[in-house]
Write a structure and sequence with these properties.
The chain has 408 residues and is of the alpha/beta class. The protein has eleven helices and 17 strands. It has two domains: 257 residues, FAD/NAD(P)-binding domain (3-Layer(bba) Sandwich), CATH 3.50.50; 109 residues, Rossmann fold, CATH 3.40.50. Strands 1, 2, 11, 12, 13, 14 and 17 form a seven-stranded mixed β-sheet that branches. Strands 8-7-9-10 form a four-stranded parallel β-sheet, sandwiched between helices. The protein has a two-stranded antiparallel sheet with strand order 3-6. A hairpin with a 2-residue loop joins strand 12 and strand 13.
Length: 408
């Protein structure tokens, strides 16, 4: 049986942030997850709070917002905690593939649906999208590539669009991952840049699906910009997310280099709890079941998609520790009357309630497990999709959970 200082359950952005925060202090850390987490499905930029209007300082907007939402996860971390966590995240991504804000707060970026959405920290390969103008932008799609609808994007953004075919490479039917790997080859991206140049009509911005390489996206960006003479930017698309996969691999690379242990592909099947503490977890790898122990645990298993919450016929449950879940009183109250109601469906606020140290608590505020903390989207009292705060919550609470666990 192996013993760790900290076991992180979940390999999404919250869990990876918590693990990295811990290993930076020299802690012995185990990260357990069934797969690569939601980052590789939906990760692109770092949303902190989409309700803050572009041009408004993030600090100016988030301080009163936290005061008005005292039960939100951000109320646990505070503005300073959010800023510290984001600064630590940015250290992991130095130039040339860095994350930065374009201005004092949120910027508007084009989406794969042809709309504009607010976000805060933007990777280098997407940053030019914040400055694009409809008349000066060319949207590039690849013939036969099904994960990006360039015609729809260009129509809605009122830009000119082209559909490229590079038959020598058999692009028709390629997946996003296969295209990204081709982009990592200098010869391919040079031929692509030349093909785009032949289609240009004086555009100053070039938008492409977000497949500009896995290993060195900054080099792909530099090559395309050098050949075309325009600013190039990626546009998010359907899962899997190549930008999110880059984030995951960078975290994993750093964690392994710092001595963390990854255990992926097998779920945590049980937890041993005694006298208000977790004494160990069991990981199932049929026909074997292995127990792992730690001084502290961080639960960062996400919501329904990640398996952190389960919906039964009449209630929502947390399956590992059987923690109480804040939720509407009945199944009939989980959803609003209209699917596209301006207010988020009540089920989106379901989750684990914690104290200020992110310990799970019951309805009276009593700490249930003193060496377990919850982080990320499994927390209650937020509407991350509607708020456009998902990555901010993950990073800020993952950072805080690890800090508080190791301080204790």
């Amino acid at each position: 049986m192996r013993h760790f200082d900290l076991i992180v359950i979940g390999t999404g952005l919250a869990g990876l942030t918590a693990a990295r925060t811990a290993v930076e202090t020299g802690a012995k850390v185990l990260i357990v997850g069934r797969g690569m987490g939601a980052l590789t499905l939906f990760g692109n930029t770092i949303d902190v709070l989409g309700e803050i209007l572009p041009g408004t300082e993030m600090a100016e907007g988030i301080t009163p917002w936290i005061a008005a939402h005292p039960q939100h996860p951000y109320a646990r971390t505070g503005r300073e905690g959010i800023e510290s966590a984001l600064a630590d995240f940015r250290v992991l991504f130095p130039p040339p593939y860095s994350f930065a804000a374009e201005g004092p707060g949120n910027s508007l970026l084009p989406t794969g649906a042809g709309t504009m959405r607010p976000t805060y920290l933007i990777p280098a390969t997407m940053r030019a999208g914040a400055a694009m103008t409809p008349a000066g932008t060319l949207i590039v799609d690849f013939r036969g590539f099904k994960d990006f609808q360039g015609e729809t994007v260009s129509l809605h953004l009122k830009c000119r669009g082209v559909n490229l075919s590079l038959p020598r490479y058999g692009l028709e039917g390629l997946t996003a991952l296969a295209l990204a790997r081709l982009m990592d080859e200098a010869y391919f991206r040079e031929r692509l840049g030349e093909a785009i140049l032949r289609q240009m009509a004086g555009e100053r911005f070039i938008g492409l699906p977000a497949v500009l390489g896995l290993r060195d996206p900054a080099a792909v960006l530099n090559t395309l910009e050098s050949i075309t003479g325009a600013r190039v930017f990626e546009i998010p698309m359907l899962p899997p997310s190549i930008p999110g996969t880059r984030i995951f691999h960078r975290f994993r690379e750093e964690l392994i280099a710092k001595g963390a242990t990854f255990l992926m592909g097998h779920p945590v099947s049980g937890a041993k709890v005694k006298d208000g503490r977790c004494e160990g977890i069991t990981v199932q790898n049929p026909p074997l079941a292995t127990e792992y122990r730690a001084d502290h645990y961080i639960l960062a298993t996400g919501r329904f998609l990640g398996g952190g919450l389960w919906a039964e016929m009449d209630r929502i449950v947390e399956p590992l520790f059987d923690l109480p879940v804040s939720q509407p009183g009945s199944r009939g109250a989980w959803f609003g009357e209209r699917f596209f109601d301006p207010e988020a469906h009540p089920i989106h606020r379901a989750g684990i309630v914690t104290d200020d140290d992110l310990h799970p608590v019951d309805e009276t505020g009593r700490v249930i497990l003193e060496n377990v903390r919850a982080a990320g989207s499994i927390l209650a009292n937020h509407q991350a999709i509607e708020e456009k705060s998902r990555e901010g919550i993950d990073i800020a609470t993952g950072f805080l959970a690890a800090k508080r666990a190791l301080a204790s």
